[in-house]
Design a protein that fits this description.
208 residues, alpha+beta, Ribosomal Protein L9, domain 1, Ribosomal Protein L9, domain 2, four-stranded mixed sheet, three-stranded antiparallel sheet, 22% strand, elongated, disordered C terminus
């Protein structure tokens, strides 16, 4: 399906670019999230007519995100979980868990803004990217421990038993893996809605 990007999307393009993506990715993620429009003749004309307005809105949103990023600089959250003596969690920490912890720390985000290539399954401190805007991101330190005392020890640099070297990965690598197959990400999005549902704002729908 050909679409018009309404914002910058990693590995797809910039706002206003017309690109081709898989139908499922468009219908289940890009269109209902307002990140793109179908590249119909009417929508292309409409976008060009309102391009300056869209760009102004994007600049305003980016400015707000940059201000938030400054306030979030150095943000750290602690998640208390049960784990074995070797440091393996009984369960895992996912994007929703991190979003809730960051929100409780005073910065409202949702799980779709958390850049996590795979769930965290071991104790330790890990840097995780938070996408505040398509062009603005910040790094949060996620401290997974069995108790507050253990979290304090880990924050001070003590290794409790968490990540093996081969399991550690930095934020850049996580971001690359996260965006490597955006169609897969959309397919796993439990909040994306039923396939084919397009919840576009009325003013952005093609004319009949």
């Amino acid at each position: 399906m050909k679409i018009i990007l309404m914002e910058r999307i990693e590995k797809l393009g910039q706002m206003g670019d017309i690109v081709t993506v898989r139908d499922g990715y468009a219908r289940n993620f890009l269109l209902p999230k307002g990140k793109a429009l179908r590249a119909s003749k009417n929508n292309i004309v409409q976008f060009e007519q309102q391009k300056s307005q869209y760009e102004a809105q994007n600049l305003e949103q980016r400015g707000e995100a940059e201000g938030l990023a400054q306030r979030m600089d150095g943000v750290s959250v602690v998640l208390i979980r049960q784990a074995s003596d070797s440091g393996q969690l009984y369960g895992s920490v996912n994007t929703r868990d991190i979003a809730v912890a960051v929100t409780e720390a005073g910065f409202t985000i949702d799980r779709h803004q958390v850049i996590l290539a795979r769930p965290i399954k071991a104790l330790g401190v890990q840097e995780v990217g938070l996408q505040l805007h398509p062009e603005v991101s910040v790094v949060a330190r996620v401290n997974v421990a069995r108790s507050e005392d253990e979290a304090a020890a880990q924050a001070a640099g003590r290794r409790i038993g968490g990540f093996d070297d081969e399991d550690e990965f930095d934020t850049q690598q996580a971001a690359e893996e996260y965006f490597e197959n955006p169609e897969d990400f959309a397919a796993d999005d439990e909040d994306a809605g039923e396939e084919g549902a397009e919840q576009l704002p009325e003013e952005e729908k093609p004319a009949p």
